Amino acid sequence: KCNGCGLCARNCKAACIDSKNHKIDYSRCVACMDCIGKCKKGAIRYERPHKEVQKPLAAEKVTDVSPEQVDNARRAFFSAGAIFATSTLLKAQEKKVDGGLAVIEDKKIPERTTPIVPAGALSIRNFAQHCTACQLCVSVCPNQVLRPSGNLMTLMQPEMSYERGYCRPECAKCAEVCPTDAIHLTSLADKSSIQIGHAVWIRKNCVPLTDGVNCGNCARHCPVAAIEMVPSEVDNPDSPKIPVVNVERCIGCGACENLCPARPFSAIYVEGHERHRVI
Prior knowledge:
Largest sheet: 2 strands, antiparallel
Oligomer: single chain
CATH class of the domain at 124-278: Alpha Beta
Number of strands: 10
CATH architecture of the domain at 124-278: 2-Layer Sandwich
Distance between the termini: 50 Å
């Protein structure tokens, strides 16, 4: 049925279709189905691979096992399982306790109206169209900022979150390994000027107001100086200082969100942008 129009090959995210020779590299196919939707002749379809029927193996001779051996094996299995479970719980508790004094509470992911995609993706739509969910960028991210999406519309495609780290302006490893140019950066200077989102301050979570202590972590660690600490009361210069975000300058790197001491939700978080822009 194929008339050699090449629509399937041009729209293949993984570039695994050779329309001239009517061949597909199945090792690279990510089953995005774009080729099926573009083909107007019904010449390409998706189906399960045909498996060869294997001949049954000859039955091996089974030796008799005494009840005592069965009991000993069962005891050994349960003993090993109990030891493994106990050691796992102890190690988990050690990780959560800081010096044996205070329990460290993990940060929770804020409810973002718009997800965050890496600098160089241009927009959420462009990223979704070109990303094959190969996970290469997730595996090389040194700060564990990228993780697979659980959204059905972008399932397994990477998105950004800042509970474990933030996107450093001097890092472009995701763009270096992306095989489809879904993340494309020409230089690090380009990355530091791309706005992928902006910081949003949450007053009820801010430590200076909830605990009455000085903080300013977000302002000190902002790489583009987009956050300034100002008195919380206009008429009282000695009042606790709170952050003010310059939305036009913020690039959405997530340093403020990651380094905010508030738990379980940060007092400042990044809201993504549908379309990225250069500032």
